[in-house]
Amino acid sequence: MPRMFEEPDLAAFQKLRCAFDPHGLANPGKVMPTPRLCGEVPGPYKQHPLERDGLAERF
């Protein structure tokens, strides 16, 4: 998301989401990540075959 939108845009999206779901019950961490960390701990990184072949980029 940060590569697509500027920080003010992300902040506005987050405010809108909080207005409709103040308790964060509706798909937490989906569509709009929570500020800074989503709370999920990623597993070990595995390179995708398309990335290995130079056809995709990891963000």
Explain what this protein looks like in three dimensions.
The chain is 31% helix and 0% strand. It is mostly helical and 59 residues long. It has a domain at 1-38. The longest helix is centred in the first third of the chain and has 14 residues, at 7-20.
The whole-number mean of residue pLDDT values reads 78
Q: What's the N-to-C terminus distance?
A: 10 Å
Counting DSSP E segments of at least 2 residues, the number of strands comes to 0
Chain oligomer state: single chain
H and E string: HH
- Percentage of residues assigned to helices: 25-40%
Layout of secondary structure:
Blueprint: H1 7-20, H2 49-52
Name the descriptors.
59 residues; mainly alpha; 0% strand; elongated
Summary of the model, kept short:
By secondary structure, this protein is mostly helical. The chain has helices at 7-20, 49-52. It contains two helices and no strands.
